[in-house]
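Bit of a strange request maybe. I'm writing a small parser for structure token strings and I need a real example to test against, not something I typed by hand. Could someone generate the tokens for this chain?
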Amino acid sequence: MSTYQPLSEVRETLKVKWYRTKLDHTKLKELSTRSDAQAWFQAGGHLALYILTGSVVFYFWSQQSWIAFLVALFFHGTVASFFVGVAPHELGHGSVFQTKWLNSVFLYLFSLLSWWDPFDYASSHTYHHRYTLHPEGDRENLLPLEPSLRSTFMLQLFTINLLTQRGRIFGKGGLISTVWVTILGAFGRVGDLNVPINEWLQSLHDDQPEEYRKSIMWSRLLLLFHGTVTILSLITGYWVFILIIPVAPFIANWLGYFVGLPQHCGLMENIPDFRKSVRSMTLPPIAEFLYWRMNWHTEHHMYAGVPCYNLKKLYQEIAADMPQPRTLVGAWREMREIWKQQKIDPTYAFDTPLPPTAKPANVGNAVPTDAVPDELESSIGDLAPKGLA
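Reply from user aminoacidic:
Good idea to test on real output. This should exercise your parser:
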């Protein structure tokens, strides 16, 4: 039984007055403008890379060049692993393509290939943006999160992620747990409610029954699609396609884990300042591309209607009011030090330092209680399902 109040009550009682760095409205409108050309580069480029690496895997398999086959499979899995919750995340916001139907096509395509449920996620992620790290209304990430480097875990991330259980980060898990969760979802079930992510899903289903019904049908489609690919691959003898398509999102999950975990790990709950609850990082260009620029995560939360390909420009506009972006190594060093403290004091959270030019959250652009929020400033794109719009 959940100890949390129903989400319908949360929407009535929890009013977070978010601090957002003041930005000229004309500039914000410019940065929020969607571009089909940039969207094709990002979404089309990622899909093309997936097809290319998959083709290389097939070629070396057909030549029985097994070492090259394994190397190619590692790279294919690395590319495919960013379909899981990364590509569908930004497409779910509806802020990638200017042409809306293209956004929907790519959302469902990437979700289908990666065993992703865009309907449960749309509900969950809407709450995540409106109530970031306020556990009454956002349980996508329940802190503290462990930045684990355990050898058995790393072995799975650098090979095939079979046994990792769905944890506190929404939708993440190994092949076996994902298939099992999808089977349960096809029958309208969520599993043991003592598991935090299951409790969160049940709360979402109770709150958004229309999205829940869509989620059930989507789970059935996932099983039908991946089951058909698996059966045809075995019947025809082309078993390699099982690795290229249904299993690929669970191969070589290493990079997705390393760049994804720092988003909120070790930071502050119950605070109306994204600069303290979200972490941004600089990444090499190829990692930034695969991650759909979500390394600029503080900026994404502050102005969630800005397309991913404009987030770095957004940071440059508001840099004087923002924390210094970490490097990937620096972020992990910071998280590991925080985790050491949290093992002694589970309530400890890192207070991200701000530059001398930054304004505290209680001045500047803090929103008065009776103010009507600017639609562009508070936009989360087209993410919210009808019941939460």
